[in-house]
Automatic annotation (TrEMBL):
Protein name: FCD domain-containing protein
Domain HTH gntR-type residue range list: 15-84
Transmembrane annotation, as ranges: none
Organism of provenance: Rhodococcus navarretei
Pfam family, one: FCD
InterPro entries referenced in this protein's UniProt entry, alphabetically: GntR_C, TF_FadR/GntR_C, Tscrpt_reg_HTH_GntR, WH-like_DNA-bd_sf, WH_DNA-bd_sf
Keyword presence, Ribosomal protein: no
Annotated signal peptide: none
Keyword list, A-Z: DNA-binding, Transcription, Transcription regulation
Amino acid sequence: MVTTDGEIVPRARAPKMSAKIANLIADQILTGGIIEGQRLPTEKDMVAEHGVARTTVREALRLLESRDLVTIKSGIGGGPVAKRPQLESLGNTMKLFLQIDGANISDVIDVRLMLEPIVAREAAANITDEQVDVMQTALDRMREDPGDYGNFQDNNAAFQRSVYDAAGNPVLNIVMETLWLLVRDAEPNEHPIATRLAAIEMQQDVLDAMRARDEDAAADTMSAFVQETAKYYRRRLSKIISRPVRWQM
């Protein structure tokens, strides 16, 4: 293509029909027009709707499946079913790039040390009373039975996600939860009860600062918490967090 000033610019390649169909379906899934778990039209119906060959529809479905937007169920009554991608999928993709650059979990921890206080400051400025209640409930449930590691993990996750959500920035939310999942998934064993109890009390300090809408205190208490957590990882799990990140199917 030649512009009015004579410059030659490569013509943008039009997307394949399979990609167009995949994009149409993806938009419906991501905007709620098609809900998670809903069965999509059959291949035959899609062929008729879009006026394309069956191979084009199948390629579109493969594209959606590769992006975790569709799962293909086999057997009688099977077919494409809508799903929504999970952050674990993003974390696994991130591992590809971390492995290419030779990064390790210790590097991920360093980034969290930089970002978590910023997130806490934003959360203190934007948190709602309902979010405070959710976070307090999570801490209270962890205190009820600190020996139940599954309970600790579930409610610790609820607390962390509430902090990220309270910050009010969806991009920051996605980045922080992905980094948190990368560190959590590297844990091989249960944390000692004393460590769990100490973590709960430091998280309570963070929440108290957020409840008071004290942005400086929220940043300071979160910084203290993540620094103590980093010391624990580097003392108890140094061999694991120093290994290069490896992507796996």
